[in-house]
Amino acid sequence: MAKSDKSAAIAELTDKFRDSGAAVLTEYRGLSVAQLTELRNSIREHATYTVVKNTLTKRAAEAAGVSAFDDDLQGPSAIAFVTGDPVEAAKGLRDFAKANPLLVIKGGVMDGKSLTSDEITKLASLESRETLLAKLAGAMNASLSQAVYLFAAPLSQTARVVGALRDKVETEGPVATDAPAPAAEETAAEAPAEAATDVAEGGDEN
Q1: Overall number of domains in the chain
Q2: How many whole angstroms separate alpha carbon 176 and alpha carbon 170?
Q3: pLDDT tens digit string along 77-91?
């Protein structure tokens, strides 16, 4: 490979490392072209599967600040550069490796953290981002529905009571009560009459 071609290949790999949220290193020794195509298609929604040269990949990884593959770049290597859901990408690689044991998952990196092959298997066992978001949304909707019910029920009852009282006042007039205020008014009304009587009686005496 010409020097210019090597430089271009390194630059391209460096960009892939930098643009990917995760990357998984595999060895594909013994897999056919048809099988590699099948693997690419199975994870293409979440990752691109690229056959790489070890020496160029080491240099690209160094340029991108990735050290997870330093000891594993041996034999026929290919990397799944994950730009979508890392859980779904890990599931695709795991499932393909189960059906095609010649695919060996060596390790990976996600958000700058190195991952062992066992950790990638554990990652594959997690629920996808979409599933988790759906469950979260469902839980939030359920909580909101419960909250709306708890708040709305007393308010609607209060509204019905207020409406009923308003209708009663409009049809029957003010509701009579035994409050002390009317009694006080009655006493005040009787006082002038008693005073007038006293005045009249006094006038008769004169």
Answers
A1: 2
A2: 14
A3: 999 999 999 999 999
Same domain, 68 and 147: no
> Three-state DSSP class for 28?
coil
Domain limits at 157?
Answer: 132-197
- Under a CB-based contact definition with an 8 Å cutoff, are residues 92 and 121 in contact? no
Report the C-alpha gap between 116 and 123 in whole angstroms: 10
Quick one: pLDDT at residue 2? 75
pLDDT at 59 over 80: yes
pTM listed for this prediction: 0.62
Q: What is the mean pLDDT of residues 176-197?
A: 45
14 and 89 fall within a common domain: yes
